[in-house]
Design goal:
single chain, alpha+beta, 5 helices, 11 strands, about 50% helix
Length: about 350
Amino acid sequence: MRSFRRHPLFVPALLCALAVLAARPAVAEGDGDGADLDISAQVARLYEDASVATGQYETGRQDAEAQRGRAERAERLLVRERQEIAVLHEDLGRIASAQYRQGGGLPYTAQILFAKDPDDLMRGQRAVRRADLAVVKAVAKSRRAEGRLAADEAKARSEWQALEKRKGELAEIKRTIEAKLDEARWALQSRADASVAAGSCRGAVRLDQPPVDSTRAWVAPVETYELSAGFGSGGEHWARRHTGQDFAVPIGTPVRAVGEGRVVKVSCGGAFGIEIVVEHPGGYYTQYAHLAAVAVDQGQRVSTGEWIGQSGTSGNSTGPHLHFEVRVTPETGSAIDPVPWLAEHGVIV
């Protein structure tokens, strides 16, 4: 899958926004052009929502992996701290035993009676004080370690809980939007099939256009895709050889004009289903076929990257995709391989 756009996503800030997107009402069934316009617009919006949700889910998944790493590091720290506390407890035991052997457990009067001389008594007292100080320090260190242990255990639990909650929220948002998008896509396609059966287009839909990159004279006909049947390939679905390059994309994917030009044909019947042909400067024409909807009128001028329709599976099509051709005339039979033609114009697919 090739993708040309990345969204700057921040997981916490967008969860609420995505929840609102997921809560949009499902596409309503209806008759007439108004319903068609509504379905096309909803598919376009949901398509963008799904793109954001997918990027959001991926960002959240990466964040979850980072959380997992932090939680695992915290668990390893807990193991080390438990080992340190065990060593401290052993040290306390040794200090207490040494203190007792050095007279720390005897009353001061008994120490005087057993002392051989004043110097011996002073040495004993200094040893006892050192032992007492060592015990106090060891106890304090042990308590600090136990405090850190308790805090780290709570932090580790919090990390894992946040991890599971985040993953669940993102997965549910993604599932909800994709379910709504799938429903809307097939509603759009059913209307496209009706138009093809009648041999009459319903008219151009109006889509909110994306920002246009004025620095690029040519672009790919769709933004995110997988290449399928190529130019010249054989198959039972074509009378001779395949005359274009297929881009496997879901129904409702926005289709872009690969370059500026003028729409010379909008048709809604025949093997190509719903199709658009655009004339470009230099004598070349591009065709976009098997569409679910058109967003331009015949004779209209279009800019590079402008959304001119939505992909589908109308006409002689075995599944959702965009059939893209480059021709030297507006009619069939004059197609050339579009992949090297695009490459000559700076577009690698």
